[in-house]
Amino acid sequence: MLSLIWKDYLIQKRSWLTVFIIPLFMLIAFSNDPSAAPVAGALAVAYLLIAGACVYDEKNKSHVLWSSLPISRKTIVGAKYLSALTFMVVGIAIAAVYGFILKIFNLPVSINGITIKNVIVLFIATTSFTALYLPVYFKFGYARSRYFSIIIYILMFMAPQFLMGQLKSNPKLSAWLQNVGGSFLLALVASVMLAISYFVSVRIYQNKDII
Fold first, then answer.
1. Are 46 and 91 in contact (CB under 8 A)?
2. Which of 30, 50, 59, 83 could potentially form a cystine with 40 if both were Cys, beta carbons 3.0 to 4.6 Å apart?
3. Measured distance CA(120)–CA(33) in Å, rounded
4. pLDDT tens-digit series, residues 16-71
5. Do the Cβ atoms of 130 and 50 come closer than 8 Å?
């Protein structure tokens, strides 16, 4: 499985420059909200790498190669889900490095450092995106699911602002969600959703004809 995860990194070697540049723009764009800027940058990295791994797999017909080897389809699907989680870690690392550099050079950009709550929010966003997108990808392929991935990604940014507006009318619920315990509960829900998504993807991929 490690070789499958490593493959998702190697096939994107031509895209790494973009992966490193885009988060910097995201951090600057969200500088008016210092607490959200690191999450926005890290989520951009996770999205670019998840979508990139899928598009290069389809372009290179990697699914045909791996399915011809003595590797179970369950392992192939599992590797894609684990890759998504490692991409999230890469996103956190890049956002943290950029935040550190911006502070070192004292640039006029207000960005908070990565906090535990940032990591939890990013985990919820990344797992939610992965859980919704990968079953559709395994069913229809990247070409037919790319617009769906873009819509989900946009919703990941719009949802927090919408929810904050709704929570202003419910201070108790807002305070609960701001609490780390509430965030962990949401992370648990996202994890369950990811697990269900994995089994759905395995079922889809096992019944799919690989040409």
1. yes
2. 30
3. 17
4. 888 888 877 877 777 777 667 777 888 888 888 998 888 888 887 776 676 677 78
5. yes
DSSP structure class, residue 69: S
Tell me how far apart the terminal alpha carbons of the chain are, to the nearest angstrom. 22
Token digits for 126? Answer: 């990344």
Amino acid identity at 114: I
Tell me the C-alpha distance between 90 and 43, whole Å: 10
* Tens digit of each residue's pLDDT (9 = 90 or more) over 73-116: 899 899 999 999 999 999 888 888 887 777 777 666 656 667 78
Question: How far is Cα 23 from Cα 18, in angstroms, rounded to an integer?
Answer: 9
Dmax (CA) of the chain: 56
- For residue 42, the Cα-to-chain-centroid distance in whole angstroms is 8
- pTM, rounded to two decimals: 0.83
Domain boundaries, the chain: 2-206
User: 168 to each of 163, 173, 177, how far by Cα in Å?
Assistant: 9, 9, 12
**Region of 123 on the Ramachandran plot (φ > 0 left; ψ -120 to 50 alpha; else beta):** alpha
